[in-house]
Description:
The protein is mainly beta. It has helices at residues 22-29, 107-111, and strands at 37-45, 50-58, 71-79, 91-92, 115-116, 124-128, 148-155, 174-182, 188-195, 212-218, 224-225, 231-239, 244-251. The strands form four sheets. A four-stranded antiparallel beta sheet has the order 6-3-8-9, with no helix packed on it. Strands 11-10-12-13 form a four-stranded antiparallel beta sheet, with no helix packed on it. Strands 1-2-7 form a three-stranded antiparallel beta sheet, with no helix packed on it. It starts with 21 loop residues before the first helix and ends with a strand.
Amino acid sequence: MDRMAEIDPFWGFNYGEKPMGIVDDMAERAKEFGQASIDMETAFDADNDLVTVNTTVTFPYDETEADEPQFAIEYLLLADGLTGEGSDWVQSNYYSGSTDEACDELQPFIDAPDHIEGLVFNDVVVMVSEIGGIEESLPATYAADEPIKHTYTFNLAEALNTSGQYVIQDKNKLRVVALLVNLETGEVCNANKVKVGEKTGINTLTADMNNIRSIDYFDLSGRKMSRAQQGVSIMRINYNNGTSKSVKVLRK
Length: 252
């Protein structure tokens, strides 16, 4: 999960205790501070078979002291709707005939053969920029709420499997995922995805900067600070309409 811990894709961390326990584990993980927002816009150059993604990363805190980048961006190109015939398209089913993991949700897999034919595969990574993040894709220092731009291009002609076969079947079923990677730990701190040819519509601080009256920082005891300090702080965003929103920020 987020390249931090191995986890069963059905039971989650507590194997055999709760069917689809991974849903609870994912929800708990989603509560973690994501470090920065990621907004994306993609374009497809059909003439040259190129997919370009323009990414905007926005941190909610300042970093002025780091000597080396703490984070980097990694891009994945995903394909949906992949299917075929023959041994290359058979899916192994390790739950087949099992008695240890019996439960209603797993029963269709337990009753199925140990190799399944005729499946349609989605969310298949067919290309990757650089595993672990692109070097210097993000700077070592940055200012809070100021967008950082980065651009990357996939050449679809290079979407080959280990046997040298072209793997993209439908160019209308491609998506790009951007990962925010912690360079020290390898952890995926945040992510976003978008269909090729579209852009994300997430809300970032910069998206409504014109509506923000002021931003205040507090420590966990409620004392006001001039900026986010080392560790966890509370950032309160005050809007022109009199409302406010508070979020936790973590500065390492």
